[in-house]
Fold this sequence. Notes:
The structure is a single chain. The chain is an alpha/beta fold. The chain is built from nine helices and six strands. The chain is 44% helix and 15% strand. Strands 3-2-1-4-5-6 form a six-stranded parallel beta sheet.
Amino acid sequence: MAKIGIMGGTFDPIHNAHLMLGRQAWKEYSLDEVWFMPSHTPPHKTDHQITDTNDRCEMVKLAIAEYPYFRFSDFEISRTGNTYTAQTLQLLKEAYPEHTFYFIVGADSLYHIETWYHPELVLGHVTILAARRECDDAACTLEKQADYLKNKYGAAIFLLHSAAMHISSQELRERQSNGTGIHDLVPDSVERYIREHGLYQHPDRRKDTL
């Protein structure tokens, strides 16, 4: 029986904080593999146009290529229509009954998880590994939130002791659009792919590169 970590999300684009979190989960909880699983059509992502699926997948593959314990998975994007975490986790358990799954999330997810589609199923299907912030008031609140979810749903939740890395995909899109640059925030291979394919560029700047 293998211990598999699941890193889900749009990865629009994947960045160094994603990789750091995956490495920490693999190391701290002795996982056999961490599967990076891009989402197809996230129902809650309405703030921007999601980048083409093929581009997002290629960036994930490039980012994880040097890590033998990371694996790309198209399990979610191969499904049609909106995809929900609760459904994905249930289907994973049915498809791979021999594996034990660990769902890796950022700290903020613990505060929002009750707004997800059937949170009781998410919290009941897998062990949650949540990124712990630095030791401040927010970290203490996170531990209380974890205890609350454990008590209410019988959830298995453990905190990851990872360094703070304040990067968001939205910030990276904005930086690339305004020309600030994203060097050192994403792997070199991903930065090169973004540049070569003209991703996240402001329309006026994109014209200049054509």
